[in-house]
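pasting for the record
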Amino acid sequence: MNDFSVIGKPVIRADSYDKVSGRSKYVADMKIPGMAYGKMFHSPVAHAEIKKIDLSEAEAVDGVLGIVTYEDVPDIPFSTCGHPRPFDTPLDTYILNRHVRYVGDPIAAVAAETPEAAEEAVSRIKIEYEELPAYFTSEEAMAEGAAEIHEGTHNIMDQNEYEIGNVEEAFSKAAYIFEDTIDTPIVTHSQMETHVSLVELEAGSGRLIVHIANQVPNIMRERLAYALGKKMQEIKVIKGVVGGGFGGKQEPVFEIINCLLTMKIKRPVLLETSREECIAMTRTRHAMRFQLRSALDENYKFIGREVTVISNGGAYTSHGHNVIMNIATQAGMLYPTANLKFKGATVYTNILIGGAMRGYGIPQWTFAMESHVDNIARKLNMNPYDFRKLNIYKPGDPVYMEHIHVNSCALPEMMEAGAKDIGWADFKNTERMHGKIKRGIGMACCSYGQSCYPHSVELSSARVKVNEDGSVTLMSGCADIGQGIDTGLSQIAAEAVGVPYESVYITPIVDTDISPFDPGAFASRELSSAGNAVKKAGLACKNDILEFAAKDRDLPLDEIDLRNGFLIKKATKEQICPIEELTMKIYYSHPCARTVDHEASSYPMDNSLTFGTVYAIVEVDTGTGAVKVEKLRTYLDCGTVVNPLIAYGQLYGGAMMSYGYGMTEQLLIDPKSGRVFNDNLLDYKVPTMADYPDIEGRFYESYEPIGAYGNKSLGEPPNLAPAAAIRNAVVNATGVTMNRIPLTPERVWEFLHPLEKEDADV
């Protein structure tokens, strides 16, 4: 068993008091003398060329300070994607556009003395358009003869394919072949804080100082510099407290527009989106269509698989096809097969932009594959648990993806424990039907990586400074957006140096001028990648102190250690002296006074997997289509749990988010105009606490050697499998295949009563 002092302890979050007391200062709370307010004019049409723009009435509004349009932007095409070097997405975006490609495309922006004046000016901007053909689904955009949304693309943003083994031969030898087409919807992030930035000009230098609520401050600075044609030293990005992101703030969205406004009027500008703008005009999770084809031998084992996926990318690249590439890396992992063919395409359409969202394509993939697996089991008249147990990855199984090495896996134990907890074997003996109410049980599994390796380098740096009194100051470029990374890194620093958690202070602000480099919060990478950097720096500090102590106390170096703020004897754990006695001497002793601080860097050179299992019991009202989830049980192997309090928050929060994905959430696009129908939190159905089922979770810890202290990815994996488990339980209850979510009452009723639905449509 690991003998940790701080790792694995439920210490209180570093930011908890400030948040619960209301002391946390968000960007929208900031006030700077002379601050103006920005508002944007968004395209009301889905696809058009602007013929004429008239600003005269807008400029006449009292309080208007300046207006920028596409005529004011640098002629520099760029991508907002958060993996900037080398470019891995098409450079198809301009800061403001003359050729608009979705309802919501920003055309102009106003800065005024008050938000009301800016809003009034926006309402008075007059534009003449030449409308162009618009396509809102991938199928429409890919149809023969469709007009190009971006010239020279044939509306294909990007595509890829690969084959492992010989798929054609595997299918020719198959005893069983199964096929499915499965659809997943567009959903929005629904983070509490909308997109907001405050930009000012630094006195004297004229540099842009950009205060952001964003996940990637260093990438933000690089993207701003590139799009504006500036050097990075001309821009300073400051990330303070962020009110949630879930991937929607993993790139510049409207921050570049705010930089233009600030440069135009030479005064600070606050640009804050409304909830409606945030939902209808920023970023989404991609809608996808999967075509799955599987070959099984006579023993019901997978011997071949074909995966084809089409993703609706929206009007501009954003993270584009990288999301499909992430699916491509997982397509052969959870159910290994020596013969696998993958083909994916991301399509330009005239809707708002698909970007990064928690899970980065794997929620879609997990729903599709786990639904397909259950469908196969039902057609074989086989228990879905037994079918998974036969085919799912087990420690020691071959891994066919070259860059993934499974070093730790508690999946078999989780599956067995979850089945026992939910009463899987006994469920068939319980009452399954009462009038129109039918009960069902279902399960789903998932796997997820812990970085973008080898697709991109994710260099993380950290600085650890042990102060004169033995306390520790930690600096990191990581972006805490509510997930608790500041607390986890503080625990790692405390463990590495050998001091109590309470002795560590982490600077909560990321300032690109002075903070160590880190690409930001994405890919569930920070606690692993940045954690290793913190550990290296912390251990270097500890080594300095121990070397001094060995000489100062005349003790063998290999017999002493630092633990809980004391110098101790390794063998007996006997405390020799407080660390403060040593550090004071180090800082103030003649003739060798020195500081105790180190900066270290780390980046992943391997990619292991987090595994999860989820079970669900549901009731389905076959008369109305209403689904009630009785129980949801979620289990995760994320290696060593660094902080159980934060970890359980992620486990339960991810399950709740996936519950919404499977049951209620879907962004609805008007098929005639391309507008978002439900651009508010009344019509976009994010579940509330009153809606959630009885949820319980548990961790099954393994030890991951590439993690700082045995840990691996945690932030995104809890969000992957619950939707599929619920769907599989609904299918178990009704006996009707349902290959599309969300499972709203209307949709479930239509699946249950297809003939009545067809009659109603006549």
